[in-house]
Amino acid sequence: MIGKTESEYLEKKGLPSDRFDQRKAHFNRMLETGEPIEWIEETFDSSKNRYFLRSFSPPTSMIDKDTYIIAYGLDITETIESKAALEELNLNLEKTVELKTNENLELNANLNEIEKFVAIGELTMGIAHDLNSPLAAILIGAKNVRETLEILFHGLIHDCSPEELEFACIHAMSGDLKSFQSSLKAMKERNQLQQLLQDEKGFSQEESLEIADGLLKARVGIDETEKINRVIESANQKKFLELMRHIYTIRQMVDTILDAANRSADVISDLRKFTKSAVHQSEETINIADSVNSVLRVLSTNLKGNIDVHIDVPNSHEIFGVPRDVFQIWSNVIKNALEALGEQGGDLWIRSVKEGDTIKIEFGNNGPDIPKEFLSKIFERFKSSKGGDNHGFGLNIVKRIADANGWDVNVVSENNSTVFMFTIKATHFL
User: Fold this and answer.
1) Residue 252 falls inside a structural domain
2) Which residues contact 288 (CB under 8 A, 6 or more apart)?
């Protein structure tokens, strides 16, 4: 604009008046402030809009600021277009993120529903697993009671005197039922009874064996002298012993059915509480020997004659916990051992030892070793080395309940010996 009028400048630059006014305004502002000024100027050529970064600034050494200035124009069309493209990309990206976020929210909602169904499925499997043993005990126990009653009503009662019937009933109802008796212990007790009958009662080997076997099945112990003498004095020893055995069996089966029914009721009660609220079950002092014998009675139908059970649990050993939880742990570990022993049979041992303020409870068997690749996964759901109908749910229940109660549980399987060891805080020792 040096030496040129406004009209000459417009004519030379070919600028429209509005653009010239804009440049003049920026020019005057630069003169007034003495500061450089920049702005973006938009133009249009034959093909598209173009953008220029314009600037007016006085020279640092200028003497007459009305005469000398520095001005430039920089074509920034590509930069502006890139920025616009980036803004559009960001906008599209925001829309995409919003869309994907909504999709993820919907997917999470669907996953939550799926997890609910999975939880229901696991709960159902757990209920089925927990109900299986007690319901089987109820079914088999009821069947045994019916068969035993048929034997009694079809002649055995009539073959014995009213006094013998009364005596058999008193024997069955006297005190608590005897604890589970392993085949090895039963054989030892039968030998003792046979020796007693030969040495003190004068029976032959054959006669003493038959009577000893009858006494054992009727659950008459070697120290119950009065009952042994009552049987010997009977003129109908064989029928009398059968009567005592069958009536005792009815009492035993009825108690097993009641115990199993209570276990089933606990499972249903737990289900109701699960659907309503998380209600903690009350803890109490539990005698280990009593709880183990209770489980063995319920599982007695699973015990084959070729499996010897060895129990070495002092009556003084007690722990603190929920009885139902303890029953679930014992029953699942024992069932696992029985399944491992299978048809070939073997030994199942249960023992407890005191170590400081803890009790270590051991469940072992001499069945086949657990493959090493399964040992690290043995407590996971749906992991089982036995195949068939075994889904690995029982030992998962064992681990979850043990963890919830603060018990340590470990398993070792080598040299035909598999041992599950529980370390538990003891309540007290007598």
Assistant:
1) no
2) 313, 317, 318, 319, 352, 359, 361
Nearest of 426, 420, 430, 429 to residue 351 by alpha carbon: 420
- 222, burial (CB in 10 Å: exposed 0-12, middle 13-18, buried 19+): middle
Task: Indicate whether 415 belongs to any domain.
Answer: yes
Confidence of residue 325 (pLDDT cuts 50, 70, 90): confident
Q: Is the pLDDT of residue 103 over 60?
A: yes
Backbone angles phi, psi at 340, to 5 degrees: -70, -40
**pLDDT for res 19:** 78
Q: What angle do CA 281, 318, 365 make, to 5 degrees?
A: 100
State the virtual CA torsion across 152, 154, 160, 163 in degrees, nearest 10.
Answer: 50
DSSP-derived 3-state class of residue 6: helix
**Domain boundary at 75, 106, 136, which?**
75
Q: Do 237 and 220 touch, CB atoms closer than 8 A?
A: no
Residue 246: phi, psi to the nearest 5?
-70, -40
Residue 382 forms part of a structural domain: yes
Which residue range forms the structural domain that includes residue 339?
Answer: 284-430
H helix and E strand count, the chain: 12, 10
The pLDDT tens digits for 147-157 are 999 988 988 88
CATH of the domain at 301: 3.30.565.10
For the chain, the domain total comes to 2
The answer to whether residue 270 sits within a structural domain is: no
Contact 219, 247 (CB under 8 A): no
Out of 21, 56, 75, pick the residue that ends a domain.
75
Distance CA 135, CA 128 (A): 10
User: In the predicted model, is pLDDT for residue 429 greater than 50?
Assistant: no
